[in-house]
C-alpha cells in the first residue's frame, strides 16, 4: 500500500437530497455494498469487495444541489482553515463524521467546492485505481491561474502544465513528487460547467458498458465516452443531479498509478 502524504485528495463522498435513491443507483452501477459508520450515525460508507471506497450523506442546506466532493487530507483542520481563508477561500460547513473524523466543506477563491478530511480511524479510502474506486480528481475552472495560486498557497502543491496536443493543455498538481490531481478549463459550450467544480473519476473495467448501465439506471451523459492518452473516459450526471466521471485506464497508466511516482492518485 502506498502512503499518501498530507495534502492529498484521499476521500470522496456524495451529498444527495435522496440518499436511498442514490444508494440504489451506485449499488446497481458499481456493485457497491453500503453500511453506516456507527450504529446511530447517518453517514454511510460504500464498500467494494469489503474495502471502503466512498461515502454518502444527506445534502446539507449550505449546498445548492447534489454533488460528489473530493476531500484533501489534513492533520489539523483549524490550521488549514486559516490558510484557506487567508488565500481567499471560505468555510461552508464543518461536521463530525464519526468520533475520530472531522470534515469541512469549503469554497476555494474561484468558487469550486471541496473538502478537508482529518481522521484517526479510517484516514483514507482502502482502495484506489481499481475498478469502481476513486482514481482521479480534476478541478474544472475557467480561472486556471487563480486555481494554481490558491492550491499552491494552501497545500504547497506544485502545478505542472503539460501540452497534450491539439491546443489541449492539462495542468497536473504534484504533492511530494506524486501527481495527485489535475486542472482543466471546461469544454467549450458546456453550460453545465458554468461554475467551477471538482470532477471525480471512478475507475471502471469497461467505460462503454458502464455508461450503458448508468443510462439504464437513469443517468444522463454529459460527455460521451472518448479516448485520451490515459484511456477511455465519460462524464455523466446521476438521477439526483450529481456529476461524476468514469475512466478505463490503459494498462501502462494503471501500472503507473500503483507506483510512488505515478501520475494518478
Defining traits:
265 residues, alpha+beta, 2,3-Dihydroxybiphenyl 1,2-Dioxygenase, domain 1, 2 domains, eight-stranded mixed beta sheet, globular, Glyas_Bleomycin-R_OHBP_Dase, Glyoxalase_6, Anthracycline_SecMetBiosynth, VOC family protein
CATH topology of the largest domain: 2,3-Dihydroxybiphenyl 1,2-Dioxygenase, domain 1
Strand portion: 35-45%
Number of domains: 2
The gross shape turns out to be: globular
- CATH level 4 superfamily of the largest domain: 2,3-Dihydroxybiphenyl 1,2-Dioxygenase, domain 1
Order of helices and strands: EHEEEEHEEEEHEEEEHEEEH
Strands side by side in the biggest sheet: 2-3-4-1-5-8-7-6
Structural class: alpha+beta
Beta-strand segment tally: 16
The parts where pLDDT drops under 50 for at least 5 residues are 260-265
CATH architecture classification name of the largest domain: Roll
How many H/I helical runs? 5
> What is the CATH top level name of the largest domain?
Alpha Beta
Largest sheet: 8 strands, mixed
Q: Return Rg in Å.
A: 17 Å
* Fraction of residues in helix: 10-25%
Spatial gap, N to C terminus: 12 Å
- Calculate the mean pLDDT score and round it: 88
Protein name: VOC family protein
Domain VOC: 8-119, 133-249
Organism: Ktedonosporobacter rubrisoli
InterPro entries: Anthracycline_SecMetBiosynth, Glyas_Bleomycin-R_OHBP_Dase, Glyas_Fos-R_dOase_dom, Glyoxalase_6, VOC_core
Description of the molecule:
The chain is of the alpha+beta class and 265 residues long. It folds into two domains: 111 residues, Roll (2,3-Dihydroxybiphenyl 1,2-Dioxygenase, domain 1), CATH 3.10.180; 124 residues, Roll (2,3-Dihydroxybiphenyl 1,2-Dioxygenase, domain 1), CATH 3.10.180. The chain has an eight-stranded mixed beta sheet with strand order 2-3-4-1-5-8-7-6, with helices on one face. Strands 10-11-12-9-13-16-15-14 form an eight-stranded mixed beta sheet. Strand 3 and strand 4 form a beta hairpin. The radius of gyration is 17 Å and the shape is globular.
Amino acid at each position: 500500500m502506498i502512503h499518501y502524504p498530507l495534502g492529498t485528495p484521499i476521500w470522496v463522498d456524495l451529498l444527495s437530497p435522496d440518499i436511498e435513491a442514490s444508494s440504489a443507483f451506485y449499488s446497481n452501477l458499481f456493485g457497491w455494498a453500503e453500511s453506516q459508520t456507527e450504529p446511530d450515525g447517518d453517514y454511510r460508507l460504500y464498500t467494494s469487495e469489503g474495502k471502503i471506497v466512498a461515502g454518502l450523506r444527506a445534502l446539507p442546506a449550505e449546498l445548492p444541489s447534489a454533488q460528489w466532493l473530493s476531500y484533501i487530507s489534513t492533520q489539523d483542520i483549524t490550521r488549514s482553515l486559516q490558510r484557506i481563508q487567508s488565500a481567499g477561500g471560505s468555510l461552508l460547513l464543518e461536521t463530525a463524521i464519526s468520533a475520530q473524523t472531522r470534515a469541512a466543506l469549503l469554497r476555494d477563491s474561484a468558487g469550486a467546492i471541496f473538502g478537508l478530511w482529518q481522521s484517526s480511524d479510517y484516514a483514507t479510502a482502502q482502495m484506489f485505481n481499481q475498478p469502481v474506486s476513486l482514481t482521479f480528481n480534476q478541478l474544472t475552472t475557467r480561472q486556471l491561474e487563480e486555481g494554481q495560486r490558491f492550491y499552491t498557497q494552501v497545500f504547497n502543491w506544485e502545478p505542472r502544465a503539460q501540452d497534450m496536443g491539439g491546443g489541449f493543455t492539462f495542468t497536473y498538481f504534484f504533492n511530494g513528487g506524486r501527481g495527485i490531481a489535475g486542472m482543466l478549463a471546461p469544454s467549450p459550450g458546456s453550460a453545465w460547467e458554468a461554475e467551477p467544480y471538482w470532477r471525480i473519476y471512478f475507475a471502471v473495467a469497461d467505460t462503454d458498458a458502464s455508461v450503458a448501465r448508468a443510462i439504464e439506471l437513469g443517468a444522463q451523459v454529459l460527455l460521451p465516452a472518448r479516448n485520451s492518452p490515459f484511456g477511455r473516459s465519460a462524464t455523466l450526471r446521476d438521477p439526483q443531479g450529481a456529476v461524476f466521471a468514469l475512466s478505463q485506464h490503459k494498462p501502462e497508466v494503471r501500472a503507473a498509478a500503483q507506483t510512488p511516482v505515478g501520475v494518478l492518485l
